[in-house]
Design brief:
The complex is a heterodimer of chains A (311) and B (305). By secondary structure, chain A is an alpha/beta fold. Chain A has a single domain (30-309), classed as Glycoside hydrolase/deacetylase (TIM Barrel, Alpha-Beta Barrel), CATH 3.20.20. Helix content of chain A is 41%, strand content 13%. The N and C termini of chain A lie far apart (51 Å). Chain B is an alpha/beta fold and 305 residues long. Chain B has one domain (13-304): Glycoside hydrolase/deacetylase (TIM Barrel), CATH 3.20.20.370. In chain B, strand 1, helix 1 (58-81) and strand 2 (87-90) form a beta-alpha-beta unit. Chain B is globular. Chain B starts with 26 loop residues before the first strand and ends with a helix. The chains are: A alpha/beta (311), B alpha/beta (305). Chains A and B meet through helix 7 of A and helix 1 and helix 4 of B.
Chain lengths: 311, 305
């Protein structure tokens, strides 16, 4: 009980040492190529949800939640890999857009066809853990987690034949060691913390990472699955975010990022895909937009950070 | 355990004295941004789990941290542009962690009231002396950073004990918003001194409506506007209170902030609205209505016997 009246971290800044508290609106300005106001960063999660995904420590959104064998939910997720992702690819192709694909390593083993299609389009590959049945969490032994990350990264790199610098945890979940292990294994950016509109630097005992603002709040999985909103609401919310970020980019004379997370087993259905086309067409026609992958945004952020630290 | 809170008596709107707000306003409208600090690794054993995922729940921690990095500045801008001084439900540890946010509130002439120390430190099961430590610490901390003498209280994360209301007047607290049974202030029975509720809201609270229930930003705005219109109508001859609780980590997102502007536009376009803070509503009520209510309640009780 008395523990509740002891406050070991009560002092200036945050209660951990991963990064500093820094209000978004007070950061140094950043310019995107061509002086565009908005970096449009599209992420496509490519996920394998095992039929036997464990209930503990928790099930990430989408993991079959019913009694084993939950064929309905398993096959609804699998729809994304058979049909949905190809619809999304067609839409992005039509606009000439490349995405960052956050790919479970298990996809490389079970669905190499998808890897080929993504590689052919020069999308970015982001490591997305082993599969959706392997979440990173506090009780994971550091050696086991190191191996999980190492395997996920090498499996994906071997399959796609290109470097992988970004990490997305299944279910966006971390242990207290995840950030350190990611830096140790050569990742340069991480997409799991949802506390900012802009990138910021993370410091670990193994080196620096860039935290990238992958949207959670206006992602399709949050609005359409967790909140049961309609796809029209999804489009409306995203366009409002776009308008607001656009006006802030003007006001603060600094680029902003519109992150879209387009999930094959959610947005890839025939009743939703037209909304994606509508959304992208609106953004690209209306805006001052730099379409970019995650590593391209990180490169700009790192360049700026380097310039700032020069004497 | 108690069968009811034993803190107020049944006195329905139709049986009580009428409230007259300053300048004959129909509705006292007050806005409560909850400015909160959630710890990454709070102590266990607090009566209910703090985070939904195993520690460290970096995702949910980061979703709340968004309010302090990005959201709060949008909320401040919105309220300022409509001339609204907010009443902040403040985790006192924000004074230690992010004093610049507290300073900005003071600059805007916002009222600060106590929301305990951290939103990850619940008061469930605490002894009275432990609760006193929380109250006293929070008031001293806020006073030190802002110069304000706090007179309002909302327990952290809506945690409660049977007797914490009795302790608040010892510290000069005049109003507590931990119960939501009414659209007008009502006296709270306490061991000594005086205490009242000022209406807060769990119904139109952004975190409940858009956060937990998943309503769209426009649906939330429509709810708040409908509540306002109804109270405005009812307030023609009996003053009402509407509280709009906000959480910068919910409403402060770029896809939702325009809905807040929409609500504020609607409310401020009407005359006969008192844009007040919690302290101002409480002070007015004590000065003009508290005795009325207490006497009326006593008379009603005598009538029945």
């Amino acid at each position: 009980m008395t523990d509740r009246l002891k406050y070991p971290h009560r002092g200036r800044g945050l209660d951990h040492t991963w990064f500093r508290h820094a209000p978004t609106i007070q950061r140094p300005q950043i310019s995107w190529p061509g002086g565009e106001r908005i970096a449009l960063w599209i992420t496509v999660p490519v996920e394998f949800f095992p039929l036997d995904a464990p209930a503990q420590p928790f099930r990430p959104l989408g993991a079959p939640p019913s009694v084993y064998p939950d064929l309905w939910n398993y096959s609804s997720r699998d729809y994304g890999l058979r049909i949905g992702i190809y619809r999304i690819i067609r839409v992005l192709d039509a606009f000439g857009l490349r995405a960052s694909a956050a790919v479970n390593a298990e996809i490389a083993v079970r669905y190499p066809r998808i890897i080929d299609e993504i590689a052919k389009r020069r999308w970015e590959f982001v490591a997305n853990g082993q599969d959706m049945g392997h979440v990173h969490h506090g009780a994971l032994a550091v050696e086991d987690e190191r191996e999980l990350i190492r395997t996920a990264r090498t499996t994906l790199m071997n399959a796609c034949g290109s470097p992988v610098s970004g990490w997305h945890s299944p279910g966006r979940s971390h242990s207290g060691n995840t950030l350190t292990l990611l830096a140790e294994q050569g990742f340069t950016y991480v997409t799991d913390w949802a506390n900012d509109d802009m990138p910021y630097s993370v410091t670990t005992p193994s080196g620096q990472l860039c935290a990238m603002p992958l949207t959670y709040e206006w992602s399709d999985r949050h609005l359409l699955v967790q909140h049961n909103l309609t796809v029209d609401d999804y489009v409306e919310h995203t366009l409002r975010a776009f308008d607001r970020l656009n006006s802030e980019a003007e006001r603060y004379r600094s680029g902003r990022i519109l992150s879209l997370s387009i999930t094959p087993w959610i947005m890839g259905y025939p009743h939703r895909i037209a909304a994606l086309r509508h959304l992208l067409s609106h953004i690209l026609n209306k805006g001052s937009v730099w379409p970019a992958t995650g590593n391209e945004v990180v490169a700009m952020f790192t360049k700026r950070a380097t310039i700032e630290t020069q004497p | 355990m108690l069968r009811d809170p034993c803190r107020y008596e049944y006195l329905p709107l139709i049986d009580r004295p009428k409230i007259q707000w300053p300048k004959a306003a129909r509705v006292a409208f007050w806005v409560c941004p909850n400015i909160e600090f959630y710890e990454l690794n709070p102590p266990d054993g607090q009566g209910r789990p703090i985070w939904p995922r195993p520690k460290p729940d970096t995702l949910n921690y980061s979703l709340r941290d968004y309010g302090n990095r990005s959201g709060v500045w949008r909320v401040m801008e919105a309220l300022e542009s409509f001339g609204i001084r907010a009443s902040v439900s403040l985790n006192a540890a924000m004074c230690d962690h992010m004093p610049e946010i507290v300073d900005a509130c003071v600059q805007l002439k916002w009222e600060l009231f106590s929301h305990g120390i951290y939103n990850t430190r619940l008061i469930y099961g605490m002894s009275e002396d432990e609760v006193r430590q929380v109250i006293g610490d929070s008031l001293e901390t806020i006073k030190r950073q802002s110069g304000q003498t706090v007179v309002g209280w909302l327990a952290p994360a809506l945690s409660t004990t049977e007797t914490f209301f009795d302790l608040l007047p010892e510290f000069g607290i005049k109003y507590a918003i931990d119960m939501v049974p009414d659209d007008q202030p009502i006296p709270i029975k306490v061991r000594s001194g005086r205490l009242i509720t000022v209406p807060y809201s769990t119904e139109i609270n952004d975190v409940r409506v858009m956060g937990y229930r998943g309503y769209s930003a426009d649906s939330w705005a429509a709810m708040v506007k409908a509540a306002f219109d109804q109270l405005y109508e009812e307030g023609k001859d009996n003053g009402m209170v509407l509280c709009m609780p906000l959480h910068p980590f919910v409403v402060g997102h770029p896809h939702r902030i325009s809905a807040l502007h929409d609500v504020l536009q609607h409310v401020t376009s009407r005359s006969d609205v008192w844009l007040a803070t919690g302290r101002e509503i409480a002070d007015w009520y004590y000065e003009h209505h508290y005795d009325d209510f207490v006497n009326h309640r006593a008379a009603a009780r005598a009538d029945r016997t």
